[in-house]
From TrEMBL:
Lineage of producing organism: Bacteria, Pseudomonadati, Pseudomonadota, Gammaproteobacteria, Alteromonadales
Name assigned to this protein: Capsule biosynthesis GfcC
Family annotation (InterPro entries): Caps_syn_GfcC_N, Caps_synth_GfcC-like_C
Entry keyword set: Signal
Signal sequence bounds: 1-19
Length: 237
């Protein structure tokens, strides 16, 4: 059973009646549950409001600060690298971008209303805690980040990833054999060779991480790792 937080008077009444142990912010509407709900129950009130693109919908924990600490670590690594003059321009730009990242702890679970009603693996029970559930319509872009300035490109149906690269000014010292495409559902694809870029078609809403060349400094490998890890937990809308 859930209680939707709208009027303050109703919220106070509910609070007096029972202490919710699960709180879920669904696209900025907050629901309090007096028992641990399953995914189908959480999605049911909103599933038919729009034509949701389930692959781009995401669930986050609001009471887990691990990714916040990872972001701080990444900023510390950037500050250390910025002490070396050869890195000043590109990494100062990245540091400014990273400061604006909003990261939470993403819950690795599929989100799909119809499937949640049919299969147990799509219908997990929520543990006690506070959550943010972002339901999304079909994205119309792909975001590139890392060794180049963050760039949004319009999504094109049936278009291989190399066609997008032709529109970008990728720095010469980027590690192009380490490019990773992060699908909106969290799946990752390493583009380790040229043939893979010709054949691979990214999903709408994908993130494409273009890493820095790790041969320049030992801390670059750590920075690449942190950026890739944080990107999966980034809240983009």
């Amino acid at each position: 059973m859930y209680y939707k937080r709208i009027p303050l008077a109703l919220f106070l009444f509910v609070s007096l009646q029972s202490a919710a142990n699960v709180t879920i912010n669904v696209n900025n509407t907050v629901y309090d549950y007096t028992s641990n709900p399953r995914m189908a129950e959480v999605l049911e009130p909103v599933a038919l409001e729009q034509s949701w693109y389930w692959n781009a919908s995401k669930l986050f924990r609001l009471d887990n600060v691990i990714q916040v600490e990872q972001k701080k670590e990444a900023l510390r690594v950037l500050s250390s690298l910025l002490e070396e003059q050869s890195f000043s321009g590109e990494l100062e730009r990245l540091k400014q971008e990273l400061r604006d990242w909003y990261v939470l702890s993403r819950v690795n679970t599929p989100i799909d209303f119809e499937l949640s009603r049919l299969m147990n693996e799509y219908n997990p029970r929520f543990e006690n805690g506070s959550y943010k559930l972002l339901l999304s319509t079909r994205p119309n872009h792909i975001l590139f980040f890392g060794a180049l300035s963050e760039t949004l490109l319009p999504y094109e149906n049936e278009t291989a990833i190399d066609e997008y690269f032709k529109q970008l000014n990728i720095p010469k010292d980027a590690y192009v054999k380490g490019i990773v495409v992060i699908a909106p559902n969290g799946d990752k694809k390493l583009l380790s060779n040229y043939l893979s870029t010709l054949a691979f078609e990214p999903m709408p809403g994908s993130l494409v991480f273009i890493p820095f060349n790790e041969s320049r400094n030992n801390n670059i490998a750590l920075l690449n790792h942190l950026l890739l890890e944080l990107s999966e937990h980034r809240v983009l809308h």
